[in-house]
Amino acid sequence: MFLQRTTWPEVEAYLEHSTGIVMPIGSTEQHGPTGLIGTDAICPETIAGGLAEAGILVGPTLSIGMAQHHLGFPGSITLRPSTLLAVVRDVVNSLAVHGFTHFYFLNGHGGNIATVNAAFAEIWADASFAQTPSGLKMKMGNWFAGKRVQALARELYGDAEGSHATASEIALTWYAHPEAERRDKLDPLRAPYGPIRDAADYRKHFPDGRIGSEPHLATPEHGERFYEAGLADALEDYRNFLAS
Ligand code: NI
User: Fold this and answer.
1) Cα dihedral 153, 148, 49, 89 in deg (nearest 10)
2) Where are the domains of the chain?
């Protein structure tokens, strides 16, 4: 069940049997010449659709994240880390007012990890300074780092997976949105590797936006397998989180 498509009495009834919620979180940033700008939001949102079908409440996707290094490419949007931190904190605190206690952020973007974990620490710090137990538990799960997803990416792409605009994430977007498949020629086939700094430096070192990846290896059929693997990983991790 999706929060955006429920009513408040339905949320109240849900809270009678579960105080857990899944929040998909992603980014709006370039994903190379053939990848959608919404890739990092579409991937966790697609997997969260399976969680919603399993009866888990899924909140609205937080689709703008920490992507300052992509601003050299048209269409990318970023929050600064302090803004994203404030957004996550306000979202958790809002739902905590209603009795939610377990917040599972299903993440699609590596650049969000440090900031979202810092937001969790801020929320717990508020409780610690006030000497008032919050009873709140937050966890971040990265769909791309699940054991089934990682095994599948290794099997299908090996070293060609890379780290940005990867074949696995692009395959998943093509499964979710078949009309998005693009076959423009990529040059070089394998994108370069290197550290991430600011936007100008990024564009200079990664001229077409990719890092280390060969997204032309992706297919919508692979995407369906990533969906199934990602859903199994997320279901298992969420259930363990609730039981912890
Ligand atoms: Ni991505």
Assistant:
1) -90
2) 3-243
Residues 167 and 181: their CA atoms lie apart, in Å, by 12
Cα 168 to averaged position of ligand 1 atoms, centre (Å): 9
Q: How far is the CA of 113 from the centre of ligand 1 (A)?
A: 13
Ligand 1 midpoint to CA 27 (Å): 8
Of the options 3.40.50.10310, 3.20.20.300, 3.40.190.10, 3.40.50.300, the CATH number for the domain spanning 3-243: 3.40.50.10310
For residue range 164-205, what is the model confidence (pLDDT) as tens digits?
999 999 999 999 999 999 999 999 999 999 999 999 999 999
Model pTM score: 0.97
Average per-residue pLDDT for the chain: 97
CA of 109 to the centre of ligand 1 (A): 5
* Residue 243 alpha carbon to ligand 1 centre in Å: 30
Ligand 1 mean position, distance from CA 164 (Å): 6
Question: b vs e for 146-167, b when ≥16 Cβ sit within 10 Å of the residue's Cβ?
Answer: bebbeebbeebbeebbbebbbb
CA 127–ligand 1 middle distance (angstroms): 33
For residue 140, give the DSSP letter: E
C-alpha of residue 166 to centroid of ligand 1, in Å: 7
Evaluate whether 225 touches 152 at the Cβ level (below 8 Å): yes
Give tens-digit pLDDT for 64-93.
999 999 999 999 999 999 999 999 999 999
Q: How far is the CA of 165 from the centre of ligand 1 (A)?
A: 5
